[in-house]
Design goal:
Length: 113
């Protein structure tokens, strides 16, 4: 919705980030990817088996915007609080829908990590 300027109460297109997308680190010891370290509602006890933390959501948002915004390179030049307007790519969105709907293919080649 944010990528298409359809967030209620936002007054049009665009979004601001409270963290810079360029500062995402998936191998950081402080906020490791796949570990529940961000804010969660107080009623979520223990692990993240029944939800996601804010760190996970931010990572996924940046990944999605990188795929569906024609101007995705601008994401990684933003400073905290900068205004970003996604130049929505309908074709890339349709491709993403297919990617997320089909069964995963087996990995081939060297693994990262």
């Amino acid at each position: 919705c944010a990528a298409k300027g359809m967030l209620p109460g936002q007054g049009g297109f665009g979004m601001r980030f409270s963290q810079r997308p360029a500062d995402l680190e998936i191998h950081s010891e402080h906020k490791p990817f796949g570990k529940c370290r961000g804010w969660r509602p107080p009623n979520v006890a223990g692990g993240c088996d029944d939800g996601y933390a804010t760190d996970d959501i931010f990572f996924l948002e940046v990944c999605l915007y990188t795929h569906i915004c024609k101007n995705h390179e601008e994401l990684f030049m933003l400073k905290v609080g900068d205004f970003f307007v996604c130049k929505f790519d309908e074709k890339a969105f349709d491709e993403l829908e297919v990617l997320l709907s089909e069964e995963p293919k087996p990995m081939t080649g060297p693994r990262l990590g």
